[in-house]
Amino acid sequence: MIDEKLLNYFESFLTDNRKQLFKNVLENRTRHFTVVLEDIFQSHNASAVVRTCDIFGVQDVHAIENKYNNKVSRHVAKGSQKWLNQYRYRNDGDNTKTCLDGLKKAGYQIVATTPHNDSCLLQDFDVSRKTAFVFGVEAEGVSDYVIENADGFLKIPMVGFTESLNISVAAAIILQDVTTKLRNSKINWELSKEEKEVLYFDWVKKTIKNVDKIEAHYQQNLK
Q1: What is the pLDDT of residue 66?
Q2: Number of alpha carbons in the 13 Å side-chain half-sphere of residue 25
Q3: CA angle centred on 199, ends 16 and 86, rounded to 5°
Q4: Cβ-based burial of 98 (10 A; exposed 0-12, middle 13-18, buried ≥19)
Q5: What tens digit of pLDDT does each residue of 111-139 get?
Q6: Helix, strand or coil, per DSSP, at residue 8
Q7: Burial tier of 206 (Cβ tally within 10 Å: 0-12, 13-18, 19+)
Q8: How far apart (Å, rounded) are the C-alpha atoms in residues 135 and 130?
Q9: Using alpha carbons only, how large is the chain's radius of gyration in Å?
Q10: pTM value?
Q11: Nearest to 199 by CA among 9, 57, 33, 56
């Protein structure tokens, strides 16, 4: 439940242009698609994918950390990480299972991005279902567990000698394609009113310097 009075107080620290920007961006945010990064050890790649998610309006990013810690480079991400919801799975050896089980429970189909197997070509992909796109490291790809438990496979058509793309490039190509199709469809892909309100409140707070002190001062004046 959003404290409307506190939100109004926080909004007084923002320009009208900033507030309108938040609202405009929220109109294009979606949870119809989400992205899963499995054991991405190159911080520049993980960071570039996070930036791509922000650019194309994908709100949630899931990072599985069985072998490596998922680190986001501020230089590469350009601050985009603060506007997304990021979930990290690094408690035990079943992190991939925990992540996929949770996403399936939330109604997502699991689609492994891989140039191998009997993969669906990107141009033929059906965007109607809620989908979690799983990306693995460039050389090894997604894990055997992902392959065995995926609901489907997706690949980008390639006609050259090279058989794989850098993960950040692959993510950009896929997300640009599927989000464009999604916005041109009649699918209900937008965030709910409640989701927008929660994110708006969060973004407003993240914009204000020393927000904790400001909130404490506000609460003190209520007494």
Answers
A1: 82
A2: 21
A3: 130
A4: middle
A5: 999 877 678 999 999 999 999 999 987 66
A6: helix
A7: exposed
A8: 16
A9: 19
A10: 0.91
A11: 57
Top CATH class, 28-189: alpha beta
Angle at CA of residue 188, ends 19 and 126, nearest 5°: 125
User: Of the candidates 155, 118, 117, which has an alpha carbon nearest to the alpha carbon of residue 134?
Assistant: 155
**What does the alpha-carbon distance between residue 97 and residue 143 come to, in Å, rounded to a whole number?**
11
Cα pseudo-dihedral 92, 34, 72, 209, rounded to 10: -110
**CA 69 to CA 46: how far, in whole Å?**
10
How many Å apart are CA 12 and CA 9, to the nearest integer? 5
71 falls in which pLDDT band (50, 70, 90)?
A: low
Q: What is the pLDDT of residue 9?
A: 92
In the chain, what are the helix, strand and coil shares in percent, each to the nearest 5?
A: 45, 15, 35
Between CA 89 and CA 9 the distance in angstroms is 35
- Sketch the domain layout of the chain as residue ranges: 28-189
Residue with tokens 């050389």: 139
